[in-house]
Amino acid sequence: MRLVIAECQVDYAGRLTAHLPMAKRLILVKADGSVSIHADDRAYKPLNWMSPPCSVTERPAEGAETEAGLTEVWEVRGRDGDTLQISLAAIHHDSSHELGIDPGLVKDGVEAHLQALLAEHPETLGDGWSLVRREYPTAIGPVDLLCRDPAGAYVAVEVKRRGEIDGVEQLTRYLDLLRRDPLLGDVQGVFAAQQIKPQARVLALDRGIACVTVDYDALRGMDRSEDRLF
Amino acid sequence: MRLVIAECQVDYAGRLTAHLPMAKRLILVKADGSVSIHADDRAYKPLNWMSPPCSVTERPAEGAETEAGLTEVWEVRGRDGDTLQISLAAIHHDSSHELGIDPGLVKDGVEAHLQALLAEHPETLGDGWSLVRREYPTAIGPVDLLCRDPAGAYVAVEVKRRGEIDGVEQLTRYLDLLRRDPLLGDVQGVFAAQQIKPQARVLALDRGIACVTVDYDALRGMDRSEDRLF
DNA sequence: GTTTTCATCTCGAAC
DNA sequence: GTTCGAGGTGAAAAC
């Protein structure tokens, strides 16, 4: 990985045409050839970038470029003929570092994991509830969980990390379908999430859907096999 | 902006829980307090990050941490109680740089601009064509351009930077509507883009929609008022 | 302030 | 290979 702090001007031509006026910025050149240009704010998104696969060619400034104060011109070529031209004026820092291949991110707490934990502990959703099956199939896709309450009535459960309106809409569509199945009889709905936004809760309750806020850490504590971190 | 190359382990807890095993990475701390951790590949997305507003606190490693080989522990706190803990073992590089406020990106060639240029030069789309109006309203949204050919027939034009299938579908819906309007009579369709993907072209032609590849630079050259770069 | 839409979205999985 | 949908989406515009 090469880190360069330099006065630079950048011109991108590809899906759109964009221009960065001359200013001091960070230029990152990674081992896969990819390039990104960062300002001194915003963690996530670079000002400009070129995703791999791409190639970088560097050349000294010539003629009018030199007169304009430039010292080097880098040209990055990507797929589809996208180009990123980086015109450097003054280089304040330039260092390279061997990093090796990253072992990669381990994600936990994704919706699938939450669903698995709830499937193992359906009593969290309601006393005496039992799991019928995960990913119960319908014509428009699988319902996250189908459970039964102690009276034998079916309950469709939609699981989200953060409960918003679209999740309620999704569950509503499933319920419409499930309720047409005479084998299931009346089906209740439960919207389960770690956090439920106020307007999602209002919409759910208006439609007779119960809301359950899930304590993820407590669920994890119930199941030792889930202790995969550390 | 502070650049740190270090052996580090990272733990994020917020919208999800994620863990990065110990490895050599780049840690970027920007002037707005935001933090991002990069591996040696991929230009766009960091492995982990904390968006501003957030605060970083640094402390020396203690007790068991020291025995585990750690030297420093950084804790980044964001909104909603999100936390990013960066445990550093060996620091290979650490430098800070004053960058100042970036003048910002100037975007050109966006769809709106392409549409404006074509509106000024409808003859680019077909000999003798004239513009009826931009953003011609329909019940499902405005059509980019409505033109007339020399024979007086109407032509609906959909403008995209890169022509893909969804653009053809969009134009098809507009044409369906426009053709029901007896005042317009038969309406032809034109799909105009800087680049048209083969499968989009096939679909368009199959539906009797003409495809026009637009030379953006040539269009810009026609209009001096558009010389906003440099 | 909240909500919706856009993005050079990126990225992975399903088909 | 293409298509679809999620993302710790982020960020800007609209309301």
From TrEMBL, chains A, B:
Where's it mainly located? cytoplasm
Q: Give the subcellular location.
A: Cytoplasm
Q: Which Gene3D superfamilies match?
A: 2.70.180.20, 3.40.1350.10
Identify the Pfam families for this entry: NucS_C, NucS_N
Enzyme Commission designation: 3.1.-.-
Has UniProt tagged this entry with the keyword Ribonucleoprotein? no
Coiled-coil blocks: none
Q: Which UniProt keywords apply?
A: Cytoplasm, DNA-binding, Endonuclease, Hydrolase, Nuclease
Q: Which GO terms describe its molecular function?
A: endonuclease activity
Function, as annotated: Cleaves both 3' and 5' ssDNA extremities of branched DNA structures.
Q: Which family does it belong to?
A: Belongs to the NucS endonuclease family.
Question: What's the name of the protein?
Answer: Endonuclease NucS
Q: Which organism is it from?
A: Microlunatus ginsengisoli
Q: What is the lineage of its organism?
A: Bacteria, Bacillati, Actinomycetota, Actinomycetes, Propionibacteriales
Protein encoded by which gene = nucS
